[in-house]
Specification:
With 370 residues, this protein is an alpha/beta fold. It folds into 2 domains: 12-246, 3-Layer(aba) Sandwich (Aspartate Aminotransferase, domain 2), CATH 3.40.640; 249-369, Aspartate Aminotransferase, domain 1, CATH 3.90.1150. The protein contains 12 helices and 13 strands. It has helices at residues 12-32, 39-51, 63-73, 91-98, 117-123, 143-153, 205-215, 236-246, 249-267, 296-305, 335-343, 355-369; strands spanning 56-60, 81-85, 102-106, 128-131, 156-157, 168-169, 172-173, 181-184, 198-202, 219-221, 224-225, 289-292, 344-347. A 4-stranded parallel sheet has the order 3-2-4-5, sandwiched between helices. It has a 3-stranded antiparallel sheet with strand order 1-9-8. Strands 6-7 form a two-stranded antiparallel sheet. It is globular.
């Protein structure tokens, strides 16, 4: 087996595909001489709303700002409780902290890594105001059950859709279930900008209007400020780039699913290796292909030594981060999140990967277990 060099993340194939259109988009914005909240942003917002089967999209500066604004729109504040997965990128928790609300972590389903609907009701109190399901690694949460619980208890839902654009639950798109939903277009995402960018999606016109105000200094008309807002606007250039890439998103998702299927087919049956599982009714767009093993660190080293890049999502669960030491959580408080942190390893999964590269990754893993 000849050695290969396979980076964990490569944007080369995607960039090559869209380069001419991206350069044309840059030239268009440059020549238009309008760089903030112009036609490019409104065109992308309309296109992404249509893609996501919602009435409204509001472009913002990044995914964390999207979550923060969603909580502000729902008037979440001190004394309110927000249910959130114990295993997620820390931004989901940070947004709740920014709102000065109380973080209520709930463990994930051990097989899918998504928020376990069976555990949500036990975490609900009279102070619970919002549930934030995170569609982790690209797989849709079991949204019907989550929305039923929210409706029963009169609780808002904010989907964190940063990793799952285009994924579905029972044929309905993620980012279209919740009252107002947040997504990120960070460059590594399935729909990635060439810098920071994010958005909110909603079918509620009132919430959309509030979000539009908040992102722009609380102002609808320049120098007239209706509420205390922030400066978090999707800029014209990133919007123009995202409009180009949006046309390719479904095709890239299909490529990701094909690569994931090849991984699963070739790695199936290896003793001690846990492969991704998809819940009934959920689709998976494989932002990440995450395997699990008790020998995670050794396997990571083996793959790296053989020229294969890997990622760990995420090595320290949020409740054990130094930033959240003040909450008083200890090791073993959220055992599933901790086990995932200790055993998860993300394999390279990039549109444009060749069959030879996929085979090299899987054969290198098999060699480790042999």
């Amino acid at each position: 087996m000849n050695p290969m060099n396979i980076p964990f993340l490569s944007l080369t194939s995607q960039n090559n595909l869209v380069e001419a259109e991206i350069r044309a988009a840059f030239e268009r914005v440059f020549q238009n001489k309008w760089y903030i909240l112009g036609k490019e942003v409104s065109d992308f917002e309309n296109a992404y709303a249509a893609f996501n089967n919602v009435q409204h999209c509001i472009g913002v500066g990044n995914g964390l700002d999207a979550l923060c604004i969603a909580l502000r729109v729902l008037e979440v504040g001190e004394g309110d409780e927000v249910i959130v997965p114990s295993n997620t990128f820390i931004a989901t928790w940070l947004a709740i902290s920014q709102a000065r609300a109380t973080i209520v972590p709930v463990e994930p389903d051990k097989d899918t890594y998504n928020l376990d609907p069976r555990l949500i009701e036990a975490a609900i109190t009279p102070k619970t105001k919002v549930i934030i399901p995170v569609h982790l690694y690209g797989q849709a949460c079991q949204m019907d059950a989550i929305m039923q619980i929210a409706h029963k208890h009169n609780i808002f839902v904010i989907e964190d859709n940063a990793q799952a654009q285009g994924s579905t639950y029972n044929n309905k798109l993620t980012g279209s279930f919740g009252h107002i939903n947040a997504t990120s277009f960070y460059p590594t995402k399935n729909l990635g900008a060439y810098g920071d960018a994010g958005a909110l999606t909603t079918n509620d016109t009132g919430l959309a209007q509030k979000a539009s105000l908040l992102r722009n200094y609380g102002s609808e008309r320049k120098y007239y400020n209706e509420v205390i807002g922030v400066n978090s606007r999707l800029d014209e250039l990133q919007a123009a780039f995202l409009s180009v890439k949006l046309k390719y998103l479904n095709g890239w998702a299909t490529e990701r699913q094909t690569i994931a299927s090849a991984y699963t087919r070739q790695l199936n049956g290896i003793d001690g290796l846990i492969l991704p599982a998809t819940a009934s009714g959920s689709s998976h767009v494989y932002h990440l292909y995450v395997i699990r093993t008790a020998k995670r660190n050794e396997l990571e080293q083996h793959l790296n030594n053989n020229g294969i890049g890997t990622g760990i999502h995420y090595p320290v669960p949020a409740h054990l981060q130094k930033a959240y030491k003040h909450l008083g959580y200890q090791k073993d408080d959220f055992t599933i999140a901790e086990e995932l942190a200790e055993t998860s390893l993300s394999l390279p999964l990039n549109p444009g990967m060749s069959n030879e590269e996929i085979d090299y990754v899987t054969k290198t893993i098999k060699k480790f277990y042999a």
